[in-house]
Amino acid sequence: MNGTARPRPAPAPLAPRIELLLGAGAPGTPGDRIEVQAVLGPGERTHGVLRFDATASELRGLVGRLHSRQAADHEVVRLGSVLFDALFRDTLGAAYREARGQARAHKLPLRLVLTSASVEMAALPWEFLYDPSLRHFLALTPDVHLSRNLPSLRPLNALPAALPLRVLVAVAGPVTYQGHRLFGLDVTAERALIDTALAPLVDAGYLEAHSVTLDGPASLPEAVRRTQPHIFHYIGHSAVLRDTPLLFGGPTGGEAVPLSGAQLAAGLSLAPELQLVLLNSCWSGTAGVQRSMFGLAPAIAEAGVPAVVGWQTGISDRSAPWLAGSLYAELARGAAVDEALTIARLALYANPKVERLAWGLAVGYLRGDRTQIVAPPEKTWRLLVIDDEPERANLLQSRLSSRGLEVVWAAGGMAGLAEVHRARPDVIVLDLKMPGMDGFEVLRRLKANPVTADLPVVVLSSLGADYETALSAYIGGAKYVIPYNGRLDQLEHVLRANLDVPLR
Description:
The protein is α/β, with parallel strands linked by helices.
């Protein structure tokens, strides 16, 4: 599969989208007018004004407790409600409700994108928006894909045209910076977690993994030039020092080498097909304090990378790998980055082993309407027919091959068991009445072996019309029992509707 060009499928319909352009201002200050412009579609715009039902001091207190992970559940809901009510009132609220209704009517998600014109607006934790009328957080709502955008005129990087996608995992483990000891981070353990998450995707040919240790200023551009990654994944330290978000390279156990967002973006610019950057480090998603392009993730996104994911505040090395693993799994299924981020947030929320509020501290900067990196290769389902009758096997092979399946035939029970381990089928179609080893014994051996126990087996046999025989097959582990009458309509229905096998 390596280097195989694959035609892109016809693009799916674009989901309804609202982009909210937030003007400059001090949130929570009485009388301060913060303009909001909502872009609903080509030529469709509406305007509003942010009005916070909280004082500046209350808002700062809630945000501070959230960032320190000390906020109680009711405080998180209060903060999310204040943000939601400030944003979606009057004409903007009507536009939001109409867009959600349209999205649901077409069974599509609503893409909600926030673009901030000031650091004050960008610093607010919009990922915790809470709809009081529906009593849920938008970032944890499967039919809402919440992300951020950036005001930038730079073009987006080119899309990759071939699989596998190249992933560059960069690791840095310095322990000191200017005489100060950095907090403990087990980069080796975190790298092992990421390797585990990537392994099935590498085995399937979807990803090709490379690694580099960022032990000096030249190591990043050299590795990027050599590997030309589509995905860049950083594991290490970052912090905000003297109002500047910095990422730390440096030798393991040695002194940190700081990199600003601009320096990081410059090194990554050597990969013109770079599509996604994951910064598994503290404060990597913050906008900065002087201007919105001053942070790490925003600077990379502004430079042309379509999707960048970081963290708004400090985060533990329990939460970051979990988010990354969920993201990779969803991207491999063909999900767009904003959809994958929603599902990863839900996975974080449901995981008691990660920080309680980690799901909302992950921030995604996504530019452009389409955020699917590349469509994965279409899966060819393999069906194994175990049957001693060539005529029926030929009928199955002819009919199901024309419906897009790969059909393998084994003439009898013993041959079938051997073929299971060689062909690794997705589904088995099994006859019961066979000389030597019959279908019941094949079922027993399949279910006794942990490697094959979960393989779905559909019994297709003239004996299936007998109730007692069918019951015995079900007890033996058959998923479905279909009486064979010379037609395959019922088998096709079971494969498509019950086993989710895509038939053309």
